[in-house]
Each structure stands twice: as C-alpha cells, then as structure tokens.
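Sequence, please.
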C-alpha cells in the first residue's frame, strides 16, 4: 500500500493506494502553524483499521520551506562572496549581510587571483561578533574549483567553531553566480528548521508502527528519502504545484499534452505537460524575490481559489486575492466562487440554500438577482484564468524545452487538454477549456490528485560533469567529486559514460539506486582547446538526470 499526503494552502489531503487504486482518502483543514498535526491527522484517517505492515511507502508534499521563507522565519545568514572580475555585486538583494572578498577563479577552474585570506579573517571575526551562526561562502566559479570556498569555510569555522558554513558548489553545480549564491543562502537559512520538522515526521510515523520508507516531494516532481532531504531542504519548495502536475501524469493516459489547472481554496497553480513530460523551468525557481538554481516545473500560482473573497465594486465583481475563510455555503463569512458554482448547480458541495443567500446578498449590491450575480462571479473567474493561462504561454514559449517541442510539432499549436484538479476545478475547468477550444478533463479523484501525485512520484536526480583533458582532471559539481583524466583523447563518448557511472554512484549514496537505470543525458558539449594550430585538449560538459516520472507500482488512473 502507498500513502501520499499533500499540504495545501486550505486543506491537507491524503490518499491510500492499493494495487493501483485509491481505496481511501481524507481532507483536513491546513493549520500552517501546526503542519505536523495536519499531516498526522490526515494520515490517521486513511490508515484506520489498516495494518501498518501493509504500508510500503509514504510520500509527503509539504509547504514548510515555502512558509518559512515567505514569512521571514528562516535563520539569519551572513553571505561571503567572491565575484571576481567583470561582475557588479552591489545590486545583489540577498538579504541579511553580504561581504565581498577579493580573489578569483576563472571559467576553467584556474586561480587567476589568490584569495585574500586576511580579508576573509577580518570578515569572519566581524560576523562572529555580530552573532551570526549561519554563513554561506560562494565563489563565482567555485563549482569548477572548490579551493577558495573550502579555504573560506576553514577560516570562518576557525573564527566561529560552532557556526554552520555552507559552500556554494555543494548547493548548486550550475552556472549563474547570483542564483547559486541565493540558493546557498536559502539552504543554510532553512536547514535547521527543516531538520527539526523531518525528525518530528520520522518519530510520528514510527509511533504509528509504520516501518515503510518516508519520502519528500521536490519542486521538480521527484522524491528524496526523508533523511537525505535534510541536506537539500530548499528542493522541497513549491512541492504543491509539483504534486498536482504529477497527479495529472498519474490520472491521464501517457503521452498526453495538457495544461494543468489546480484550483484550490486559496490559489490556482498552472503547469504544462508536453507529450507526457512536465515542462521544466530552465533557469530555476523564483523564491519570493530570490532567483535560485532550484530545479522546478515551469509553474505559476494565481491568487484565485474556490474560497476567494467576492465583493461588489460598483457594478463590477471584485474577486480575491484574499481568502476570508471557507465558502459561505460551507459555513464561511463571505461570498465566494464556490457559492456561485453551487447555486448554478455546477458543483454539489455545501448547502445550496446558503449559497443562494450569499449570492442574493452580493446581487443586492450589484442590483441584480442571486442567479445573475452567481453567473457574473463565474464569468469573472473564468476570464481571469484565461488571462493567466494565455500569459503563461508567453512565458512558457521562452523555455528551451517548449521551443524544441514546437519544432517537433512542425507548427505552433496549443495543447488539446485542459486538465482540472483540486476542489474548485469541477465547475470552472470545463468552461475554461471550452473558451480555449480544448478538451476539458476532470479525472477521477481530481480533488485529491495532489496527494496521488505525491504517492506515485519516483526519485529524480541531476549530475553536472565537467572534464578538462588539457589540465587532466574532471569535477562533479553537485558533490565535489574530482579525479584525474590521463587520456588526452578522452572524448564525448567517454565523458557521457563516466557521467553515467558517477550518477549511479550518487544515486546509491542517496538511497535511490533502483532508479539509476533511468538516467539520461540532457546536455553534452565539447569545446576543443587549440594551441599552436593544433588541438591541445578538450573541455567536455555533460549533464545527466533521472527525470520526473511515476513509480512502476502505479497502474491506476488513465494509465
């Protein structure tokens, strides 16, 4: 049996899956100040009268990191950066305290300016005096030569032995120095709070005599073992949109091209699936004002949900963005889109009498009947969703994967499916699909699709391999692995083969070896070094990944 639990903005959903079928579900209100209690309440509902020995896997999608960052509750971090020449770091908005250090590594990993160790010592003493116990050290090309970052860490830890120091190359192996700096800062800022939460989850599940492995869903739709995820806490941000996307993959036939519209109580998340492959954001996730290297689906959250507050603004409808509570028909204080849909018999949840009361109140302010007010609310909600979806297509079209997909299609077309999940999708998505001239799909178990997506998602993993045959070494950005290359004829085929071996080893260390066979090359490039009119060596870059997908045990839904 498989368990998936998704913490949404309004409700926490859980599913119990047995032999490819959902056999039990639960929904409890989300209390963001007590996420552990929400998770365990949802879990307890679905496993009542079920032997713990039957549980094989537990996957959680949590908003913990998202909330900590959004509410400014992460630990303060001092950031020490070595930008080198050609960059102006004065405009960086990375929060807390930023110190710029002299020294430089070039793009090939060569030291072109020694690290100013005396300057680092002065900075380390200063931040220690100011009480910082979390420090991020990032060099511009530190992922290609770790020596400066390692020396900075050594100096900081000597000045403040009880401090936690995170190096940039361990947080991200990708180019783009500002994004790597932001990712490193967020990682160290959130790690202790996340570790505490992970320990509490492990203890709470253990008390229920569930011995199954526990996983956390990441922003790229993959899972990590709970204990391993402590080293990658920010990877779990935006796991909600990832869960809905994976839920649509699980509940629709393979190979479909679909817009995912996840309408919850507070927000709507939009995503895109191209021929059965979720569209990834090529640059990384934006976390509040921070541009990061966190791998994530190309998604957008819209401040529109089934419980969004509705009010009259003259003779027009003002919709959201805030949520005053549950829908009026469910005992809430204000009219909402849910009330409008209930009155128009588009959905069946809640009391219709209360929905009519809410729309009648709104209609008096608009000078129309309750039914007319309800129709206006629905029209405004559909129009807003259409604007957001069309706007997202403009952004999606800039993603390399989308461009490749359109080339393969040989014409510019829009996906044919609009797939609705979440409680608010039942009424609105068919109307949105009709306006887009697409097929509207509301799959079975759509209201708990996020929890299903979490339950059946498989692990993902990336590896960035770089070899310089002229200098005779290779590096793996993600974990700092390095080694010699003695064969000057080492080429692209050999680089890809070595990258495959290394990602298998990395997967084994992370506890996901069984999925290593799924690893694939996503980028492979060779740059010949020429000296004296002849090739003196090669620089080879290979990126590999275990992509997002579904575990083999899942056979339900549209598959």
């Amino acid at each position: 049996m498989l368990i998936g639990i998704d913490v949404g903005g309004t409700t926490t959903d859980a599913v119990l899956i047995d032999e490819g079928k959902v056999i039990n579900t639960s929904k409890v209100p989300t209390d963001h100040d007590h996420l552990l209690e929400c998770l365990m309440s949802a879990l307890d509902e679905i496993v009542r009268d079920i032997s713990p020995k039957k549980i094989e896997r537990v996957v959680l999608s949590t908003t913990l990191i998202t909330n900590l960052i959004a509410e400014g509750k992460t630990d303060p971090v001092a950031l020490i950066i070595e930008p080198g020449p050609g960059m102006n770091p004065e405009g960086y908005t990375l929060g807390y305290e930023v110190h710029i250090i002299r020294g430089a590594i070039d793009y090939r990993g060569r030291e072109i300016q020694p690290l100013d160790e005396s300057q680092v010592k002065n900075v380390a003493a200063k931040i220690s005096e100011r009480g910082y116990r979390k420090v991020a050290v990032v060099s511009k090309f530190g992922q290609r030569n770790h020596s400066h970052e390692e020396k900075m860490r050594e100096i900081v830890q000597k000045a403040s032995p009880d401090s936690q120091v995170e190096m940039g190359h361990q947080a991200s192996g990708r180019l783009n120095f500002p994004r790597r700096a932001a990712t490193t800062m967020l990682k160290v800022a959130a790690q202790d709070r996340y570790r505490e939460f992970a320990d509490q989850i492990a203890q709470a599940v253990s008390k229920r005599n569930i011995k199954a492995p526990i996983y956390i869903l990441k922003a790229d739709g993959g899972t990590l073992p709970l204990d391993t995820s402590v080293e990658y806490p920010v990877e779990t941000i935006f796991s909600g949109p990832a869960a809905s996307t994976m839920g649509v993959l699980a509940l629709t036939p393979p190979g479909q091209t679909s817009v995912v519209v996840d309408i919850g109580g507070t927000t709507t998340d939009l995503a895109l699936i191209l021929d059965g492959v979720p569209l990834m954001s090529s640059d990384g996730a934006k976390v509040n004002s921070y541009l990061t290297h966190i791998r994530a689906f190309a998604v957008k959250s819209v401040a529109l949900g089934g419980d969004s507050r509705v009010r009259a603004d003259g003779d027009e409808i003002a919709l959201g963005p805030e949520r005053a509570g549950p829908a009026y028909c469910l005992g809430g204080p204000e009219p909402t889109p849910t009330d409008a849909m209930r009155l128009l018999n588009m959905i069946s949840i809640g009391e219709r009498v209360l929905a009519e009361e809410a729309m009648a109140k709104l209609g008096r302010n608009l000078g129309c009947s309750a039914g007319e007010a309800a129709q206006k609310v629905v029209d405004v909600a559909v129009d807003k969703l259409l604007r957001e979806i069309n706007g997202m297509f403009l952004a999606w079209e800039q993603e390399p994967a989308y461009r490749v997909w359109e080339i393969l299609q040989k014409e510019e077309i829009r996906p044919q499916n609009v797939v609705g999940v979440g409680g608010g999708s039942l009424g609105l998505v068919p109307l949105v699909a009709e306006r887009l001239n697409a097929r509207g799909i509301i799959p079975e178990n759509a209201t708990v699709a996020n929890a299903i997506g979490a339950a059946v998602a498989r692990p993902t993993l990336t590896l960035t391999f770089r070899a310089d045959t002229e200098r005779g070494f290779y590096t793996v950005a993600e974990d700092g692995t390095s080694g010699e290359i003695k064969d000057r004829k080492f080429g692209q085929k050999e680089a890809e083969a070595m990258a495959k071996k290394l990602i298998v080893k990395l997967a084994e260390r992370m506890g996901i070896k069984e999925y290593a066979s799924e690893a694939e090359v996503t980028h492979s490039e060779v740059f010949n070094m020429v000296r004296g009119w002849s090739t003196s060596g090669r620089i080879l870059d290979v990126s590999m990944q275990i992509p997002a997908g579904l575990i083999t045990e899942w056979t339900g839904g549209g598959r």
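The first strand starts at residue 2 and ends at 7.
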